[in-house]
Design goal:
This protein is an alpha+beta fold. The chain has one domain: Beta Barrel (Porin), CATH 2.40.160. The protein has three helices and 14 strands. A twelve-stranded antiparallel β-barrel has the order 1-2-3-6-7-8-9-10-11-12-13-14. Strand 8 and strand 9 form a beta hairpin. The protein is globular and about 55 Å long. The N and C termini lie far apart (about 85 Å). It comes from Ulvibacter litoralis. This is MetA-pathway of phenol degradation.
């Protein structure tokens, strides 16, 4: 009798545990389904506007390590950022990899409600998506035509915290074609400047039943002022989705980068969102010329 009672209690306990598990899972899935997958209703690193390309490949094997701070009404986010560029064929093809390894965020109650988030107090950490890109130089140093650069980029689904609108938990891709031209100014203080423009396609998955995928037009333009030991980059860009649910982010970016002939150079960046993704971002970064380091090792031998 007692043995049968214990068996029944054990079965009831297992049933209650399983029921609780499925209830939690269903609530978790329900909260995820209500997240609006669009830059206007997510964190700053979920669906960012890509770099505005200048029409020309980077020349060095370069590692960038940076710290970024994003501020908006209701969302304060800080993160580390790493980026690696590897030339595969000199002045022809390169490989680009980037990731936000970790971000720290603090979202207020009003923003949580606006984003339909019910499972958190708004504070936490998240890991970001990995981006992998192939850069192809189509044309360079032509007498009259501009330099042309094609990039093809894949975003993995490695980002976490979809339920808190930090990342999309789905892959995406974008490709762009940029054109740029260097203009000599004949000044010892400001030897040259570079004008450029970019266009492409930015694609990501949504949770909508009517629009499973958002195909956005990617655009941008800018000017680089090339001084003797630094470059001052200024660009405007964004992408324009067709759903119109906060899917048309636009921004301006300014970056000051040193260009010393050394293994380490520095950059200070400022970004202001002016539509849909209205974060103000400050970045401080270190650029390590790994080819310079390699030459030092070779010379030491």
């Amino acid at each position: 009798m007692k043995k049968n009672t214990r068996v029944r209690l054990s079965q009831v306990t297992k049933l209650l545990v399983l029921t609780a598990f499925f209830l939690i899972q269903s609530q978790f899935s329900f909260s995820q389904q209500h997240i609006v997958i669009t830059p206007g209703f997510m964190g700053p690193n979920a669906l960012p506007v890509p770099e505005i390309k200048t029409g020309i490949l980077p020349s060095q094997l370069n590692l960038k390590v940076a710290f970024e701070n994003h501020s908006s009404d209701g969302d304060q986010t800080s993160n580390f950022y790493t980026e690696l560029y590897v030339p595969l064929q000199a002045k022809k093809v390169g490989l680009f990899v980037s990731v936000v390894p970790i971000e720290f965020y603090n979202v207020d109650e009003a923003t949580l409600l606006d984003r339909k988030i019910e499972t958190t107090d708004g504070k936490g950490t998240a890991g970001g998506d990995i981006y992998v890109g192939t850069y192809i130089q189509l044309l360079q140093n032509h007498k009259s035509l501009p330099d042309l650069l094609l990039t093809i980029n894949l975003r993995t689904a490695s980002g976490t915290k979809l339920e808190e609108a930090r990342y999309t938990d789905s892959p995406g891709y974008f490709f762009d074609l940029s054109a740029g031209k260097e203009i000599a100014l004949g000044s010892s203080f400001l030897p040259s400047m570079r004008l450029y423009a970019m266009g492409g396609l930015y694609v990501y998955q949504t949770h909508r039943t009517d629009f499973r995928q958002n195909d956005a037009i990617l655009y941008g333009a800018g000017i680089d002022l090339n001084f003797n030991h630094f470059v001052f980059k200024n660009a405007f860009g964004g992408y324009s989705g067709f759903v119109r649910d906060g899917d048309r982010p636009a921004l301006v970016r300014s970056t000051l980068k040193t260009t010393f002939n050394s293994m380490v150079n520095y950059e200070l960046g400022f970004q202001k969102g002016i539509a849909d993704q209205k974060y103000t971002t400050v970045r401080f970064g270190l650029n390590f010329d790994l080819s310079y380091f390699k030459s030092l090792v070779t010379n030491s031998k």
